[in-house]
Amino acid sequence: MRDRLLKFLNHEQLTSKQFAGIIGVQPSSVSHILSGRNKPGFDFIEKTILKYPRLNVDWLITGRGDMLKDMPGEKNLFSEDYKSESGQKDEIKSRITDVNTTEKVEKSHEETVRTDMDKLVTDKESSSKSTTEKKKVELIIVMYNDKSFSEYFPSD
Q1: What are 93-137's pLDDT values in tens digits?
Q2: What are phi and psi of 150, to 5 degrees?
């Protein structure tokens, strides 16, 4: 099971520490399982499956089947709904709407962050006036949990 867990972590591009945080166990628990020192217990497997419902528990425990299972109602290239022209158009429209909505929310969030950062920079500058040269923030980087980031250049 240790090798399959490693394969799953690689597939999800997670470190053992990140995985431990996601499923709610101590990083040492995952480390001990991956090193072969301990075998995973029921609680560990249950927490893993609850956080990753697509992970095939049969594969994880026995190695039988595929790593990931198809979820009910999930469309793929071979399902009839996806093949039908109207179903395909509806799926595409839905995805475009989701992308547009996400982009609007992200832009709104970025504008709010930019405004807040500009205010913060202004407040900081006014509160730290000195007789010497004023320091100015040139770049602010915001890191997101999906490993993306945004750069902000505060206005003067």
Answers
A1: 665 665 556 566 666 666 776 776 677 666 555 555 554 567 788
A2: -130, 145
DSSP SS3 for 151: strand
> HSE of 39 in the Cβ direction (CA atoms, 13 Å)?
4
**pTM beyond 0.70:** no
Is domain 2-62 annotated with CATH 3.30.1490.190?
no
Structural contact between residues 152 and 139, judged by C-beta atoms closer than 8 angstroms: yes
Q: How far apart are the C-alpha atoms of 35 and 72, rounded to whole Å? A: 35
- Give the CA-trace dihedral at 38, 22, 48, 24, to 10 degrees: 60
Distance CA 95, CA 146 (A): 19
DSSP H or E segment with residue 140: strand 140-143
Contact 71, 53 (CB under 8 A): yes
Give the Cβ contact number of residue 8 at 10 Å.
19
Return the domain boundaries, the chain. 2-62, 95-152
Q: What are phi and psi of 143, to 5 degrees?
A: -95, 135
Residue 32, token pair as written in the block: 């001990």
